[in-house]
């Protein structure tokens, strides 16, 4: 047991001090920081479109803010409190509006005409101007036209209020747990969607990084021909499990680092208004007791599975240059799961998504996304987790046998030929017993 911990410690410390591990830890934090900064400046730096309003006399009486409409309701097309656009009141003619548009002093101009008791509007903008949703203008003009029409028809206050009463659509999201309906907030659903998108990327980065590290670790030792010396004092079994446990120690370390950064970040930002508004809409207890904990557990098992597979494939190489060839199938499986995760976000109920939720090596992305989005209950999710655990145990046993059989074998036959040869030898040995 002492030799096992010596190997574990040596692998752990060697990789902990490496630049690869440092970049692996910092790169997601740097990417998140850059994304947050870009999003902040994008949100705060958007220019409010400035427009001009050109109208004939009749239309002007509808949209002007200088007089009140029926029952004291003020027309608000030119309302300075509006945040979606600004109106340049100095521009009152079409010629001046075209000149200002050409000189890029305004984003566009709105022309209004009243004919046969019908108000028509045309908005002209530059192709490189700040975008203005014309639905905003349409809504304002429709409301004001309705107010003026109500005045002309001499509607009472009660009739006008009834006419302008909007239809409210309430959106309620529900989920089903063991056949029982449960209410879920829309903000929570949006947060789970963001979580699902992050899951597919993070799991891919983790499994590819640690699988590559263990493959390089074993491949470097085989390429340097020092395994004969190492195995004279440490058994192949101890060496195999020591390397695997050292890598898992790095995984736990990285997760703890992210936990510390997350706690510190929460302490610094939770008192800001935007953070409080976001957090108040989330059910943190539901989030941390369900999707996040399940994702962490599933991701950990997936990392173990890919690490074991990488160790098995790396034991088949004779030179370090063959490492990339050896882990090519592993990389393909990782990207297959990655694409499956995005497919699950867009089409949760397709047979392909449902079946791949239970297939090891890809289910770590597909099932975690489906569970985070609330498309499956805890029962199927943990069934998929159990299948992955059983697969991990089986692959660990197979990988150990192949590692012990090939750790001192140096062949130029190629990785896949060596794999087929090793499997045939193992089968023959088992039949001979």
TrEMBL record:
Membrane topology value: Multi-pass membrane protein
Organism, as annotated: Loigolactobacillus binensis
Location(s) in or outside the cell: Cell membrane
Domain ABC-2 type transporter transmembrane residues, every copy: 21-399
Protein name: ABC transporter permease
Listed PANTHER family: MEMBRANE COMPONENT OF ABC TRANSPORTER YHHJ-RELATED, MULTIDRUG ABC TRANSPORTER PERMEASE YBHS-RELATED
Main subcellular location of this protein, as a coarse class: membrane
InterPro entries, per database record: ABC-2_transporter_component (IPR051449), ABC2_TM (IPR013525)
Membrane spanning stretches: 21-43, 195-215, 248-272, 292-314, 326-345, 381-400
Keywords, in A-Z order: Cell membrane, Membrane, Transmembrane, Transmembrane helix
